[in-house]
UniProtKB/TrEMBL annotation:
<keyword id="KW-0175">Coiled coil</keyword>
<feature type="domain" description="Rab-GAP TBC">
    <location>
        <begin position="1"/>
        <end position="30"/>
    </location>
</feature>
<feature type="compositionally biased region" description="Low complexity">
    <location>
        <begin position="287"/>
        <end position="299"/>
    </location>
</feature>
<feature type="region of interest" description="Disordered">
    <location>
        <begin position="282"/>
        <end position="307"/>
    </location>
</feature>
<feature type="coiled-coil region">
    <location>
        <begin position="87"/>
        <end position="224"/>
    </location>
</feature>
<dbReference type="InterPro" id="IPR035969">
    <property type="entry name" value="Rab-GAP_TBC_sf"/>
</dbReference>
<dbReference type="InterPro" id="IPR000195">
    <property type="entry name" value="Rab-GAP-TBC_dom"/>
</dbReference>
<dbReference type="Pfam" id="PF23436">
    <property type="entry name" value="RabGap-TBC_2"/>
</dbReference>
<feature type="coiled-coil region">
    <location>
        <begin position="324"/>
        <end position="351"/>
    </location>
</feature>
<protein>
    <submittedName>
        <fullName>Rab GTPase-activating 1 isoform X2</fullName>
    </submittedName>
</protein>
Amino acid sequence: YASQWFLTLYTAKFPLFMVFHILDLFLSEGMVVLFSMALSLLKASQRDLLALDFEGVLKYFRVNLPKKHRNEHNFKELLQIWMSLHSKISEKKLKKLEKKYQLVKEAQALREEPSIRFEREFKRLSQLIRRLEQENDDLASEYIEAKISLSKQLEELRDDYEIVKAELLRYKTDYQNNLNEVSDTNKKLKIELDQIKQLWRIDNQKFEDQIQQANQLSLEQTQKHQSEMQRNTRIIQEYKQICNSLSGKVEKWQNFKKKSKAKKLSACQNDLDNSWQVNSSATNLVSNGSNSSSSSADYSEMEESETRFDLADSSLVSADNGQLTDQELKIKNLELELARVKLELVDAQCKNQEFDHRLKTMVGSNPESRHGSITTKSLGSTTDNLEMMTASTTSINSLPGNGTNNSWLSKTLTQFKEATSQVVQKAQKSKLNG
């Protein structure tokens, strides 16, 4: 009944708080606590145990005793009993009792008859022999089974070893082949890398040379463009000065023409007034004669003034030409011719725009006869302007001493000619489509 207590340290049946206390006592006092706690349980339940039979005692140890000590009050009483017994029971006292028990057992064995003792010893030894034989048979069968299983495992391991050996050999050959291939590939790649590096060096050198050449070329072109721009700027400034001077002269000429026209108109008005007075007196005739003579004098005076203006203009040009060198005179004449040609070109463009406007208007109204006549006239005027520009260009290019200084002039006139020819072609196409 107490074996379960000792083997489980009272943890199988009793509550946890009781088990915790017993374990604390066991760790602090040692093995004596287990024996003294068992005696305390027996002493606390002494009355109940004495009143029961054998089966009731076993049931009491199994059921009633754990239930009884679930209450902490009962457990405290048990601890008090244990303390009283523990003070009386010590480890030395238990050892003395153990020795006494051994002496008593030996004395009883000596007092027994030898035959009974030998029979009991014989039974014990025979039981031991049977047990050992059974163990031997079990061990032999286990040995045989183990030997058979080991032989099977050995065969399997040998087969596995052969398979692994074959696979290892195959892997080794594959690895060697791959290693050879990799080494060959590495050599080829090194050779190709050296070739690529060499080609790259050559290409890089060529590219650097090309860059240097391009830089030199761009530098030369930049300098050339800068010089051309400076020359063009200088020519444009001179051309602007010429245009300004020409525009001033044109304004003077227009003012002079207006004044001369006003004088002519006033003279004509006077003549008309005098012609209505034919039947007047002789004195009036004399005065009219003097007036007509004065008007004729005015006419002659205006013509002389116009001639003087033209001569003054030409004399200014001739005076300037006398002061300039031959080369500068040629350039001056070319610039004057260019200004005249540009003015004619502007006039031609204005006429072409007017022609386009009238052509669109006539196409909208669709009178065929008028359209044909206007188109013919406009084309004739445009063709005349084109021929005049061509003749001017030819005359300018035929002048001696032009050289490279007047190449831009011929280019400009060529562009004007191309633009005018395109306008004429468009007009002819529109005429044919109409």
